[in-house]
Amino acid sequence: MKLLTMLKHEIKEIGLVSLYFFFCFGVILTLRKLFLADYRIEVHVLSMAAISALIAAKIVIILDKTHAGSRFDASHSLGLAALYKTLVYIIATFILLFLEKLFHAYRESGMLTQAILDVWEHRDRSIIFAKVLCVGLAFFAYHLYTGLDRRLGEGTLHRLITARPKLPEETPNPDKG
Fold first, then answer.
1. How far apart are the C-alpha atoms of 63 and 21, rounded to whole Å?
2. Span 34-44, pLDDT tens digits
């Protein structure tokens, strides 16, 4: 029974984070698709958003459990802790994007040194910077939300966002007679 409970918790945790990143990446990639439509360039964004969201969610969950991911949570302001985490995650994102390009270059050339040279010579700084910036904004919003939720009490922020407002009950006004 413990295993089933733990498995449900992990699926829920990864699922919610994946859903958040799927939404963020879906918006980013849909904008990309719309911009490229003027040039009649077809891009398939749904699968790319889904895969990217799953990868980002797993990385976030793993890094959040490490010292690098939780270093400033208890000792600094929420904004500073979120900024620190975002910078750490952006560096990790940059490394992963570079490794992805390196992997594709290696598949084409078959030699690691040639692949590194190809990626270095043909790097598109604008695309890499745009991707890191968009992913960084998604990370920052995620860290602000989770940090605020943690400080308010797990689930409190979610309830505040999703709950319907309570209408004030009509009370008799003593001034009106």
1. 15
2. 999 889 888 88
